[in-house]
Amino acid sequence: MKTGNTSTPLRPCSEWVEKLNALHQGDLPLNLRIELHQHLETCSRCQAVLAEYRAMDVLITGLPPVEPLPAMPARLQELVGVSNEAAQAIPMHAAQETPSLPAAPVSTRTSANPSRGRLTKRLNLVVAMLVVAALLGGFLVLSTARRTGSFASQHSTPLYLATNGPDSVAYAINSADSTIIWQHDLGHKLIKPPLAAGGNVYFPSDDGNIYVLRASDGYPLWHARVSSPRFPIMGLFAYKDLIIVGTESGDLAALSASNGSTSWHIQDPCASSKTNQSASNANSSEPYPCSLVPLLLVNGVIYGFADGLYAWNASNGQVIWRNAEYQAGSLVVSHGKVYVPYGYIAVLDASNGHFLHSLGRPGIYQLLVANDNIIYLQGSSGLRSPPGQPRTSSELFAFRLSNDTLLWRRTLTTPAALLSVTASSIYLGDAIQANNLAGFQVGTDLYSLRASDGSQQWHWHDSADDGIVSGLGVVSAFEVNSVVCFLTTNGIYGLQASTGKVLWHVFQGQSMQGPVFQGQSIESPIGA
Amino acid sequence: MQPNLSSRANDPPGEPAQMPDSESEIVERARAGDGMAFTLLFQHYNAPICTYIARLVDSDEQGRDLAQETFIHAWKSLPALHGELQFKPWLYRIAINVARSHLRRTRLVRWLPWTEHEQNPLWIAGPEEQVGEAEHIHQVLARLGMQSRVCLLLQLYAGFSQREIATALNISEKSVSVYVSRGREQFRQLYHQMKGDIVQ
């Protein structure tokens, strides 16, 4: 922090800090509890810190209570009732055996709250559609080799995605018309969207492996174990002929994109925790774990958080610089500067991590860079608008990257979140549930704004609320070949970028990972 | 057993309502498709799950929305579960996954009202002048690492022991111990930093 009168709070003895946080009787064996008690009798620092911990606990638990849901929501009530009816109408084993393939393209739905009878009919219809889709999907796959050129648009780009669930299925589809190019049973559950780069598609799995398919036909190339299931993959990047992986266990590794062999590997990058431990707890044989959250790869430099903000050389994994001030958050790197939300937007020198200046007033920001010229920031405060005040949900700001001056600002009246930007457009999306107390219109929305001034170009709205876990809403959106592709919990949509008209909607009712396309994520993380 | 569907208006927020029968019996009935049994589970866990998620995502409104998602996920997933089920940690695990998905998707964060871009805003004429203590605590919580926040709030709000947290998250007790201590220490430091306190 940049306050002039702040000094570092007391630190507890490092070998006791975990034990000071054992609140429950069973958290510590009796002998350690006795040892802790004896230590506290002689260590004034730990005494003081423990008192502070307890005071902080009181602060946290003393926050104003959260009002629960006033009653079981109608959607949940319906679902609970419907499930019994569905069990009678459709035997569970039959539903489980139904192949999970994308449904045919459908138009935007308009039903808001279908009755139980209608839902039962819809379930029957869905089963019938799935059977038809399975036949259709199988036909498309079988005939892909001969027909790809004929049904794919001249301007189509392959999109890569996969179903969620214990046995994910990977797909490549055409961006222009959503037709299937290939599919492949991965047989594992994905934890993040895939990465498409260098003619391959990389699927990070919950078993700690990365499974690699050839982008052109889905042929499996190799897989490599990069983490344990306990410590998932946190970031995946492509850089030249390397695939760079960061894991929650603190490992940062680079694999050969061609065969998965390890090029370099760094464990436990936490410099300060090592230093602290060696200074204060030299006899301890147990290393202090260090989580690693790589966020960006820009110009051959990996940026991410461990015990501070780091910049690593992507070629060899060496630390270029570390700034201990910033411990977590999001990042944007552009014009030789690093932008970090930290109670304000801190602007750092990308070459050495030194603080340059800040943007804005205190707050916590979501930020996203559009192109070489503009950085976009968004914040939400509308749900706290005082009664009687105009309802504002968030504000959107555009700053010139060249000199960090404000270009424009707009107030949004929906809780839409910033999703992606192109040189000309900004995309925002939201999903409003039936029980929202702020009175926003129920459904899923996607907004297209002009990047130059923030004015709205079009708005797409789907009012459906069919109990298929809506509310998770628009997960991601991007523009490719004049098609806006976006992922929802109700499948994947393709909209005409100029008008917002729905071109296709596939994988209806399914939870998916992706889509991504080649070149999109070369220097971007997955799932960030 | 007659399900107790009475209003729980008198129950304090964040505290589970009393269950009329053993939870395991009710869970088994819900797993078999008994909607009324699931209603009981909903009533029992409505307040604590709303509170927990609201603290995780730093929004009461989103907390309620995501709590609804949590119960929907739970209802849909119950029939597929086999073997002995520890419902409470399982439900909290769903809540955490739903909250994580939400945060990952939207990076939804709060901010204070923006005035105008300032020429020399190096810092911060005392955030405590602009926000109350509760808002201050919300801001500090929002800046904790996700895993630390998850573990710390499970300890403080759900009353979980470290072993129960480990079960809920499917990680080791050692990791839980590290995350909890890291979270509490980080909270303490950030709290002082953001308030500009002097700590000798």
Structural summary, described in words:
The complex is a heterodimer of chains A (528) and B (200). By secondary structure, chain A is of the alpha+beta class. Chain A has helices spanning 17-20, 30-42, 44-61, 74-89, 92-97, 116-151, 271-280, and strands spanning 158-163, 169-174, 180-185, 195-197, 200-204, 209-214, 220-225, 233-239, 242-247, 252-256, 262-266, 293-298, 301-305, 309-313, 319-323, 332-334, 337-341, 345-349, 355-359, 366-369, 374-380, 394-400, 406-412, 417-421, 425-432, 443-450, 456-462, 476-480, 483-488, 491-496, 502-506, 512-516. The longest helix of chain A is centred in the N-terminal third of the chain and has 36 residues, at 116-151. Chain B contains eight helices and no strands. Chain B is globular, with a radius of gyration of 19 Å. In chain B, 51% of the residues are buried. Mean pLDDT of chain B is 73; it is low at 1-20 and 108-131. The interface between A and B is large, with 92 and 99 residues.
In short:
Chain A is of the alpha+beta class and 528 residues long.
